[in-house]
């Protein structure tokens, strides 16, 4: 752990967020954000997945169960999928995961879905900032 | 007319249809219900001879969804020489829907299945009656008029039928099976879609996240994770269910609250656009947990998001097997 992180932790609570990024768009988008030196919160830990369609409900629920305060899933824009329709299949799944989680009383803001292409470093940073803000307001996860 | 006469009539015509099918060799076997070993219970039964049809019964305790037997983990309705057997299934509305949905999912061939349709007016919630009776032993149960009469050694109690049927049956819109691809004989109906306002869910959905969580945990904390609900469910036919999977282990095998919640959460997600609301899971639960709330929500998600009701048509693709460029994505995070 770097010194800055320890310092922020002692000052105020910051969430830990796990991010599943698709290999072809969002992961490259995150890379671009880094290369372009765009600042975004250091709360996300990135897991690279081949496609947003690879993200199963288990990933999300297991993450929340293991104590991650929030989950971010990002893939290519509809129509841009490297595997043609992976993100469209995923989008249907995301909708119902969100509905069921909400029904069980898990705040929908804990699980955030977004599209970010490889050229959208700026958009990626903005959306991560937004997601971090939402999850920070919800506070630490106490359920499970 | 009372319940008893209704059921007798249905039983008669059901036996007649089954006998005809067996005698004409249109089916090799008929799956139906028979008397259980305890009052208020029933069992599934497979008959292969026309003279056995009198063993089949129909009453308001026939809670099993017989479609479960069509896609068991080990195929049973297969003859070593003839291959797949032709099977007739005694079907109330939800059994018929389950069969049609299993066909859409490619699990069975409707050419081999005859749906013997019967109208159902609701399944008695025996767990609730047992709870009302308490510790006393129930020896005899009968229906008369619109009442359920429960008798024991030194007591006799009456319950209103409309009140003591399964909560999920109270909301049922498909009483007899839909007629799809002419697979149905007996009592069937032409039904394209059902409309529902889900007013029973409104109260729960208005709660805050914290209250919802408390309500759900209170509902499910009795769960012992015996997986009876999964076994009774016609849609839970996976050879390797996620609860049995141990590589990777997605969640613990204990009866910790978190493990219980995750089990029901994932099961609900898996049933979106597939659940036929038969209430078999509720009926078989040894702890008497009423899963009505989850069943209704799962139905509602499929209806609201994709305008889909499972098991009504063999042509429409279930939402989770399909996708479209124009799906709603109001939940995606966007820049301000």
Provide structural commentary:
With 144 residues, chain A is an alpha/beta fold. Chain A is 44% helix and 16% strand. In chain A, helix 2 packs across helix 5. Chain A starts with a helix and ends in a 6-residue tail after the last helix. With 336 residues, chain B is an alpha/beta fold. Chain B has one domain. Helix content of chain B is 31%, strand content 14%. Chain B is built from ten helices and ten strands. A five-stranded mixed β-sheet of chain B has the order 2-1-5-6-10. Chain B starts with a helix and ends in a 30-residue tail after the last helix. In chain B, 40% of the residues are buried. The interface between A and B is large, with 39 and 42 residues.
Brief synopsis:
The complex is a heterodimer of chains A (144) and B (336). Chain A is of the alpha/beta class and 144 residues long. Chain A has helices at 3-11, 26-35, 57-65, 86-103, 121-138, and strands spanning 17-22, 44-49, 70-75, 111-115.
Number of DSSP strand runs of chain A? 4
**Rg of chain A (CA only):** 15 Å
As for the CATH topology of chain A, it is Rossmann fold
**Which ranges of chain B are low-confidence, i.e. pLDDT below 50, for 5 or more consecutive residues?**
none
In N-to-C order, the SSE pattern of chain B is HEEEEEHEHEEEHEHHHHHH
Which consecutive residue ranges of chain A, at least 5 long each, have pLDDT under 50?
none
Q: Report the biggest beta sheet of chain A as strand number plus sense, adding barrel if it closes.
A: 4 strands, parallel
């Amino acid at each position: 752990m770097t010194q800055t992180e320890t310092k922020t932790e002692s000052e105020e609570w910051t969430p830990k967020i796990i991010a599943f990024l698709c290999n072809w768009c969002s992961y490259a988008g995150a890379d671009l954000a880094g290369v372009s030196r765009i600042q975004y919160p250091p709360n996300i830990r990135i897991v690279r997945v081949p496609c947003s369609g690879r993200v199963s409900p288990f990933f999300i629920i297991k993450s929340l169960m293991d104590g991650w305060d929030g989950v971010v899933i990002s893939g290519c824009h509809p129509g841009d999928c490297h595997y043609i329709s992976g993100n469209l299949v995923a989008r249907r799944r995301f909708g119902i995961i969100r509905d069921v989680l909400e029904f069980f009383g898990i705040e929908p803001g804990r699980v955030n879905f977004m599209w970010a292409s490889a050229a959208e470093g700026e958009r990626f940073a903005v959306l991560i900032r937004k997601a971090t803000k939402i999850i920070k307001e919800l506070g630490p996860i106490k359920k499970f | 007319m009372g319940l008893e006469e209704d059921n007798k009539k249905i039983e008669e015509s059901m036996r007649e249809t089954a006998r005809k099918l067996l005698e004409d060799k249109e089916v090799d076997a008929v799956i139906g219900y028979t008397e259980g070993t305890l009052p208020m219970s029933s069992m599934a039964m497979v008959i292969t001879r026309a003279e056995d049809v009198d063993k089949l019964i129909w009453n308001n305790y026939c809670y099993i969804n017989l479609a479960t037997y069509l896609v068991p983990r080990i195929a049973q309705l297969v003859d070593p020489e003839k291959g797949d057997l032709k099977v007739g299934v005694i079907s109330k509305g939800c059994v018929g829907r389950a069969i049609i949905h299993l066909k859409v999912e490619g699990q069975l061939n409707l050419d081999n299945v005859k749906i013997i349709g019967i109208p159902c007016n609701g399944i008695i919630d025996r767990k609730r009656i047992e709870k009302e009776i308490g510790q006393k032993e129930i020896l005899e149960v009968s229906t008369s008029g619109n009442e359920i009469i429960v008798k024991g050694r030194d007591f006799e109690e009456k319950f209103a039928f409309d009140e003591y049927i399964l909560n999920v049956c109270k909301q049922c819109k498909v009483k007899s099976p839909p007629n799809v691809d002419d697979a149905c004989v007996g009592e069937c109906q032409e039904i394209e879609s059902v409309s529902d306002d889900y007013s029973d869910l409104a109260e729960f959905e208005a709660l805050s996240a914290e209250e919802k969580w408390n309500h759900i945990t209170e509902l499910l904390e009795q769960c012992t994770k015996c997986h009876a609900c999964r076994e009774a469910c016609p849609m839970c036919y996976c050879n390797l269910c996620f609860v049995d999977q141990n590589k990777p282990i997605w969640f613990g095998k204990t009866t910790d609250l978190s493990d219980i919640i995750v089990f029901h959460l994932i099961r609900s997600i898996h049933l979106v656009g597939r659940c036929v609301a038969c209430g078999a899971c509720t009926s078989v639960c040894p702890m008497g947990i009423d899963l009505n709330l989850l069943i209704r929500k799962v139905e509602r998600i499929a209806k609201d998001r994709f305008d889909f009701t499972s098991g009504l048509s063999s042509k429409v693709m279930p939402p989770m097997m399909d996708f479209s460029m124009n799906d709603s994505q109001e939940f995606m995070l966007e820049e301000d």
